[in-house]
Design goal:
Length: about 325
């Protein structure tokens, strides 16, 4: 990647991160960290391991596309920086994915880098739909449904099934050309998308062919990649479990998975907010209350998770400037 582009990503991310930190209530942050103690360090360390799983998913996808592949830890660095840029970018996927493609292109080529990043994003989102669906099943099995929660559960189930169908079709037929054609119908964007399709039609066709090849020729790799991401989602509920231990909240790991699922679903519906500000906090408060916890528990949980996100966003942005 050219140093000029690297600096643009770095400066943009640092500027947004500074705004996020400036908006914090520093007294509340101090009290939260003092209360959390060494458990906050455990949460930070947990995510170092979770990012290994994310990187493993991406590495498997790249390895299935050809013999030339990057060093795993270079990919880990790029993955963490990509997530950091996505956290800081309104709309998500507008900073991290271009950065990943530009960082990987000199090693494996632009088209293969693009298809691997698209496939990773598809797998990441696809695993989320499976995670949400499995969490709905867990909620139905272990908690009593009211008319309100039954309606919400039914709507969420339909949403998850629709998402799984959409990405299954995308794996089978490719999604790059379809996404570009959909963009061509969006007001103000359509003209640029049409021009892009005309200029890059062959490259888009190659990328879609590589995406479809993973589904048709490397089914085991695809399944392994989805399971790796799904395992990462389930393991990340340990963060909630650790935090609730701090305040002596008696909660099962299944409840932590359900809290995470509801919060991530609610926050992703507000994808246009940088770091999903407000959406994630509201998700934690509502899910904790629905499972019989106090509002204070939900607020403390939201605060520690937000601080962890800020720490790892800072780490990811610093890694942009680290060569090895």
């Amino acid at each position: 990647m050219k140093k000029k582009h690297q600096n643009i990503f770095f400066v943009f991310g640092i500027a947004v991160l500074a705004v996020m930190i400036w908006q914090l209530d520093f007294h509340q942050v101090y009290e939260g960290l003092r209360h959390a103690g060494y458990w906050f360090a455990a949460v930070i360390a947990l995510w170092a391991l979770l990012y290994v799983l994310n990187t493993l998913t991406w590495y498997m996808i790249i390895a299935a596309g050809g013999k030339k592949r990057p060093d795993f830890w270079m990919l880990y660095k790029t993955s963490v920086s990509g997530f950091a840029l996505n956290y800081a970018t309104p709309g998500g996927l507008m900073g991290g994915e271009p950065y990943r493609i530009m960082a990987l292109s000199p090693i494996i080529g632009t088209e293969r880098a693009s298809s691997s990043v698209i496939l990773f994003v598809m797998t990441h989102i696809f695993s989320h739909f499976w995670f949400w669906l499995l969490s709905i099943v867990a909620y139905v099995l272990f908690y009593t449904l009211t008319p309100l929660t039954a309606g919400i559960t039914a709507a969420a189930t339909a949403f998850c099934l629709l998402g799984l169908w959409f990405f299954t079709v995308g794996y089978r037929k490719g999604i790059a050309m379809r996404a570009a054609k959909w963009a061509s119908h969006i007001p103000f964007v359509g003209r640029y998308a049409t021009t892009f399709i005309t200029r890059h039609h062959d490259q888009l066709a190659v990328i879609d062919g590589q995406i479809a090849a993973l589904h048709s020729q490397n089914r085991r790799t695809l399944v392994a990649a989805v399971l790796s991401e799904l395992l990462c989602r389930i393991a990340s509920a340990a963060e909630i479990y650790f935090i609730l231990l701090v305040i002596n909240c008696d909660v099962s790991y299944t409840s932590c998975v359900i809290i995470l699922a509801f919060t991530s679903l609610f926050a992703n519906l507000l994808f246009f907010l940088p770091m999903q500000v407000g959406g994630r906090e509201g998700g934690f408060l509502m899910s904790a209350s629905a499972l019989g916890m106090s509002i204070g528990s939900g607020a403390f949980l939201a605060l520690i998770v937000r601080l962890r996100e800020l720490v790892w966003t800072g780490i990811g942005l610093i890694l942009i400037k680290v060569k090895k």
